Amino acid sequence: MMNQFPASFLWGASSSAFQIEGGWDEGGKGMTVADFNSFKLSDKQADTKVASDFYHHWKEDIDLMKELGLKAYRFSLSWARIIPDGDGEVNPEGIAFYNKVIDYLIEQGICPLVTLYHFDLPYALVEKYNGWECRDCAYAFERYARVCFRAFGDRVKYWQVINEQNLMIRVNNRMNIYTNDEWEADRMRAQMDYHMFLAHALAVNACHELVEGGKIAPAVSSTCTYPLTNKPEDVWAARMNDWFKTNYCLEMHTNGEYPGYYMRYLEERNIVPKMEPCDVAILKSAKIDYIALNYYRTLCASYLPADAEHPAGSRVFRGNEVDFDQYGYCRDERNQNLKASEYGAQIDPMGLRIVLNEYYRRYHLPLIITENGLGMGDELTADGRVHDDYRIDYLRQHVQAIADAIGDGVEVMGYCPWSVMDLLSSHQGFRKRYGFIYVNRTDSDLKDLARIRKDSFYWYQKVIKTNGECL
After folding, report:
1. In Å, how far are 160, 249, 352, 368, 435 from 290, measured between CA atoms?
2. Residue 237 forms part of a structural domain
3. By C-alpha distance, which of 251, 121, 271, 148 is closest to 202?
């Protein structure tokens, strides 16, 4: 079957502010949670101070995006570059920087896809409110969103509100949750999650009010879980793993209320967040225009009884962090039928076809993949080349999965793999590289920060030029 990508398909690539920009304290920018967390690891890996130094190389980098043939560039704004303390005065230097980037992208024929918030809450809001635990943070975010819509909405028409809220909420240091009390941590988590849902709804409504022709969406970390066996309990566990980690979030965004299974869980744990009566109308009125999803791998689960023995010898509710075990529901397992990358992510292009089909049938909204990629320890050869055939193979299989989903009748708007160039990985610094463009630095040595086209750059360039027909 021929690959029938629509002529309007947005072939793009992605990044995020704290991972690519650098210039962490330049141009009036304030410190963020992402900065704070990276500084704690700076003796082990690179931090956000320089990252890929897009802040100083933005024009050169956009020229490379043009050469690559990108139709779209998905990137995030730094809230703290625009409002350094999160809810105080607007920083004109931050507005000016993003205006330059957006104008030059458009000049080069590249559509800007803008994410408002990607893991980098202004740290001043942590000190003032404990971040998302306080309702005031949701209204600070609405104000920030309105500033962005007014400043950039005449040119930016595609927006994502929060990147991977459903994954971010699982990671304690991204949410500034530091208590050792398991119940208290989950109470805080539930309240923070709810306030982000409120912030999301407020931003969606503001976009539709302020941006003529604006389209806005969540950007979720997609989840596809297979049962470890065909035992009914394992099948149920796999369903619950998807529902608890992704679907509850999409249901909240599309229906404006928690689904019953999730409310049952919150009530059983006695961690139902505080809600105001006026929130019902806000959450129900916020209608998203499409779904942005990030896809890297699939998961596997078995049933985990509530009274199962924990290795530490005491009963807990959650185990590990991102792919957590949920006692009474599901245990994270390894899928023996899949190969994994050197960093442990199990590679499964079929899973992408599955989630695209599932989300489209369930929510009946257009879809765009805003992250998908392979992190590896790329090597620069003596002749200044990067031969990343493994990445080409990974991406080719996933692009084919998208073509298959389109053939299934799924409306897919575009594909923005992670990442446009090497950037700061949250846990592996510059040892783990994703980009089409190699950035010549290590965790400990900035070197010359030269930009070097990898073999995957030329492969993707051809894919875009032929609209996917060369696969």
Report:
1. 9, 14, 17, 8, 26
2. no
3. 148
Structure tokens at 196: 């982000």
Residue 55 has pLDDT above 90, yes or no: yes
Q: How many domains in the chain?
A: 1
Catalogue the active-site residues: 371
Tokens representing 26 are 């330049």
Adjacent-strand bridge partners of 219: 163, 292
Q: Is 194 exposed, middle or buried (0-12, 13-18, 19+ CB in 10 A)?
A: buried
Chain centre to alpha carbon of residue 243: 18
Task: Report helix, strand or coil for 19.
Answer: helix
Using alpha carbons, list the distances in angstroms from residue 351 to 10, 48, 336. Answer: 21, 32, 15
DSSP 346: B
Residues 6 or more apart from 236 whose CB is under 8 A from it?
A: 303
- What CATH code is carried by the domain that includes residue 76? 3.20.20.80
pLDDT value of position 426: 82
Give the gyration radius of the chain's Cα atoms.
21
Q: What per-residue confidence (pLDDT) applies to 312?
A: 54
pLDDT for residue 43: 86
Burial class (CB in 10 A: 0-12, 13-18, 19+), 205: middle
- Identity of the amino acid at 114: V
Q: Would residue 321 count as lying in a domain?
A: no
The number of beta carbons lying within 10 Å of the beta carbon of residue 28 is 18
Range of the domain at 216: 10-224+253-297+337-465
Q: How many Cβ atoms sit within 10 Å of the Cβ of residue 251?
A: 19
* pLDDT surpassing 70 at residue 116: yes
307 vs 229: CA distance, rounded Å: 21
Whether the per-residue pLDDT at 190 is higher than 90: the answer is yes
Looking at every residue in the chain, the average pLDDT score rounds to 94
Contact 282, 356 (CB under 8 A): no
Q: Are 432 and 375 in contact (CB under 8 A)?
A: yes
Give the integer Cα–Cα distance in Å for 443 and 450.
Answer: 15
Q: 443 lies in a domain?
A: yes
DSSP 120: -
Q: In 3D, which of 116, 202, 122, 112 has the Cα closest to residue 164? A: 116
What does pTM read for this prediction? 0.95
Q: Are 77 and 114 in contact (CB under 8 A)?
A: yes
Q: Which residue type sits at 445?
A: D
Q: Give yes or no for a contact between 120 and 34, defined as CB atoms under 8 angstroms apart.
A: yes
Tokens encoding 9: 């398909």
Amino acid at 450: A
Query: How many Å apart are CA 209 and CA 134, to the nearest integer?
Result: 25
Evaluate whether residue 292 is within a structural domain.
Answer: yes
